[in-house]
Design goal:
The structure holds 3 protein chains of 3 kinds. By secondary structure, chain A is mostly helical. Helix content of chain A is about 70%, strand content about 0%. In chain A, α1 runs antiparallel to α2 and α2 runs antiparallel to α3. Chain B is an all-alpha fold. Chain B contains 15 helices and 2 strands. In chain B, strands 1-2 form a two-stranded antiparallel sheet. In chain B, a hairpin with a 2-residue loop joins β1 and β2. In chain B, α2 packs across α14. Chain B is globular. In chain C, the strands form 3 sheets. Chain C has a 3-stranded antiparallel β-sheet with strand order 3-4-6, with no helix packed on it. The radius of gyration of chain C is 26 Å and the shape is elongated. Classes of the chains: A mainly alpha, B mainly alpha, C alpha+beta. At the A-B interface, α2 and α3 of A face α5, α6 and α7 of B.
């Protein structure tokens, strides 16, 4: 067992432990913080795999964006500081069962799938390679999906501006 | 000669001869960690004293001048005071998160040190996406503030944390876009590549108009991101007592305080790397003799000189202007800085494609 | 139209930034402007501002004469009873009785330095002195009698 493996198991323990913390914590803010650590652990896993770009994007999108938004919505709701009541045992049981079934299906798929090793030369995951692939017009390029996604984002942005520009009815 | 690169290279060689490769890795990690902590402590002492002196001189005062010669030992005395103070935890606080938040602030500051090039070939981790890494990791900073504000169980702390969250999330956009301008010019996210692209002139000179605009926006946005006046709404002494760290005392407060100064150092180092060429000496066109003299100044002195110049600029900025109101702050970002930096990045892209930069 | 106003605003903002930073930059580089007084060190050379209000005193000239007629205008003007004028009757050379002060008692511990007594005084007998080292070990030391012993009213002050 070399250092790299030890780091992998530490990261896995962090992800799983904080994931369990996120679903079992009875304080909603703590649950959000556990979720944060779970996501940071996943980013750490990407760093461990030396996919630095994906790791950084994971942190920017999930940690800097989504978790902060979750925390904000927790702050803005009332009674967020109180402990939630404990769940009923039968609900817990069914939730555990559902989670187990999901895991089982995923694992089944993973183990049954025949992974075929590619013979093509590996491409280093540098930013320029990712960018060329994303915006490539050649075969296996992702220019069209990329543009579709950008139109979606543009529509969302224009929608935000329209909502923000709506003048309030004058009430005297 | 005795450059930092040389010293680290010799140390590495000696360690490799003496120990097995796994132990070399462990020892080098330990050395790097201790060096970073030492740098933190030194920076904390120097920057706090510098801030107090600059503030005093700008406000026509004398500043600390009692402890030690010219008051140089003042921040050491302050540190001693903070070390021996009792670290209180309020009874209504969420104890785990309350005690954990300052450490997150420190950890984020430590992680941010990794891709910064302190001198020629002297860097902890020459990462492929250095600049993106810095902006990604610094977005975790807001979590520690939100955590501290929430866990204190205090209305002032919570309001400070909310304000700080809104502020950091919005100013990250224009900070990111102004960084992107230089990334477009240099064509890389790697810190070493960005510095090497400035061998014949720094981007602030080569990139003319877009670089100047993004430099101004960068300075404003990072001042807001590090929660310093005139954007210090998160702590706003006169309104929120001390904002998110109202309930903190002793060493836990000191960690927040130190993290603020470390963040200032890091954003200024990033600014120096992007706009002022990092450790690259100052060169003028074809004045060979002049360039040669400049090359004799060690690269670490260039880096720290530029960084401290930017830190001074931010301090000057801080002590000149009064605090903004929260609506003015968000107006400034969403109505002025963000549209301008979006326009600016279009301009920069056009200039980079047409090759109009020098 | 909107765009022109917007750009003007941006340039105006940058100009005001530079104006502010020029002023503070001037102060930063010109240390002779520093106004800090390092008080206990420069006690001998300390010069306070002319309008500094430290305590009420009654100036006497070299013949030990003051200008107070004992009219009690200051006592009436004082909002919190700091001044107490004790009057007596002098016999003038013509044999007339004349009102004069026996003691002008001043309670420094009650005084708020509001300056109302100085304004009220019709004969400018009392003024504010720029002293400030008022600390004493006993509270009774703060009750002062402003007129010196055996002092007389100045000639010609009615």
């Amino acid at each position: 067992m070399d250092g790299s493996t030890i780091i992998f198991y530490l990261l896995a323990a962090l992800i799983l432990g904080s994931g369990i913390g996120a679903v079992s914590s009875r304080q909603i803010f703590r649950a959000a913080i556990y979720l944060l650590f779970s996501l940071i652990g996943i980013a750490g896993l990407f760093f461990w795999l030396q996919y630095e770009f994906i790791a950084a994007v994971q942190i920017v999108v999930y940690v800097g964006g989504i978790v902060v938004m979750i925390i904000f919505s927790i702050f803005l709701t009332q009674q967020a500081g109180e402990k939630l009541p404990a769940q009923r045992t039968d609900r817990k049981l069914f939730a555990a069962l559902a989670a187990f079934c999901g895991l089982a299906i995923t694992l089944l798929q993973v183990f049954q799938f025949k992974f075929i090793g590619t013979t093509a030369a590996t491409v280093p995951p540098t930013v320029s390679n990712i960018g060329n692939q994303m915006l490539g017009l050649a075969e296996n390029g992702y220019a069209l999906p990329f543009e579709v996604v950008s139109i979606l984002l543009l529509a969302a942005m224009i929608g935000c501006i329209v909502i923000a520009l709506k003048s309030k009815p004058q009430s005297i | 000669m005795w450059s930092l690169t040389d010293i680290t290279g010799r140390l590495d060689q000696w360690l490799n001869q003496t120990f097995s490769s796994t132990w070399v890795l462990v020892i080098e990690m330990l050395i790097a960690g201790v060096a970073v902590i030492g740098l933190f402590a030194a920076l904390g002492l120097v920057l706090v004293l510098m801030e107090r002196r600059v503030a005093a001189w700008i406000q026509i005062r004398l500043g600390p001048n009692r402890v030690g010669p010219f008051g140089l030992l003042q921040s050491l005395a302050d540190t001693l005071k903070l070390l021996v103070k009792e670290g209180m935890t309020p009874s209504g606080a969420d104890k785990f998160l309350f005690n954990f938040a300052p450490y997150i602030a420190m950890m984020v500051a430590m992680l941010l040190m990794a891709p910064i090039a302190f001198a020629k070939n002297f860097q902890l981790w020459d990462l492929n996406i250095g600049v993106l890494y810095i902006s990604a990791i610094s977005s975790i900073m807001v979590i520690s503030i939100l955590m501290a504000g929430w866990a204190s169980n205090n209305k002032y702390s919570l309001m400070g944390a909310m304000r700080s969250g809104a502020q950091i999330v919005s100013y990250e956009l224009s900070a990111g876009l102004s960084v992107l301008t230089i990334v477009v010019f240099s064509g890389s996210l790697n810190v070493t590549d960005i510095i090497n692209s400035q061998a014949d002139g720094w981007w602030i000179f080569k990139g003319h108009l877009p670089a100047w605009i993004s430099f101004v926006i960068f300075i404003i946005a990072v001042t807001a991101e590090t929660n310093r006046a005139p954007f210090d709404l998160a702590e706003a002494e006169s309104e929120l007592t001390a904002g998110f760290h109202t309930e903190y005392s002793g060493m836990k407060f000191a960690l927040f305080f130190l993290a603020e100064y470390i963040n200032v150092f890091i954003v200024c180092a990033l600014g120096a790397i992007l706009f002022l060429g990092g450790w690259m000496p100052f060169h003028i066109g074809h004045w060979e003799a002049f360039n040669h003299v400049m090359d004799y100044v060690p690269s670490s002195i260039w880096f720290f000189g530029k960084t401290f110049f930017l830190i001074f600029l931010i301090m000057w900025f801080r002590w000149t202007f009064p605090r903004l109101r929260i609506d003015q702050l968000l107006n400034l970002e969403w109505k002025y800085l963000l549209p301008i930096s979006m326009f600016n990045i279009l301009l920069a892209t056009a200039i980079a494609i047409l090759g109009w930069h020098f | 139209m909107f765009l022109i106003k917007y750009i003007k605003e941006v340039f105006g903002a940058i100009r005001s930034l530079l104006v502010g930073m020029r002023l503070t930059g001037y102060y930063f580089t010109h240390h002779k402007e520093i106004i800090t007084e390092q008080y206990p060190d420069n006690r001998d050379t300390l010069k306070l501002a002319d309008r500094f209000k430290g305590e009420v005193v009654m100036p006497h000239d070299e013949k030990n004469e003051h200008r107070c007629t004992g009219c009690t205008a200051c006592e009436l003007a004082c909002p919190n009873g700091t001044i107490k004028v004790v009057t007596k009757f002098d016999i003038t050379p013509e044999g007339k009785k004349k009102k004069a002060i026996d003691k002008l008692v001043y309670h420094l511990e009650l005084c708020t330095m509001c300056n109302l007594c100085i304004v009220a005084c019709p004969s400018d007998a009392i003024v504010m002195a720029p002293t400030f080292e008022h600390s004493v070990f006993d509270r009774s030391a703060l009750t002062k009698i402003l007129n010196k012993p055996d002092s007389k009213i100045m000639e010609g002050v009615e």
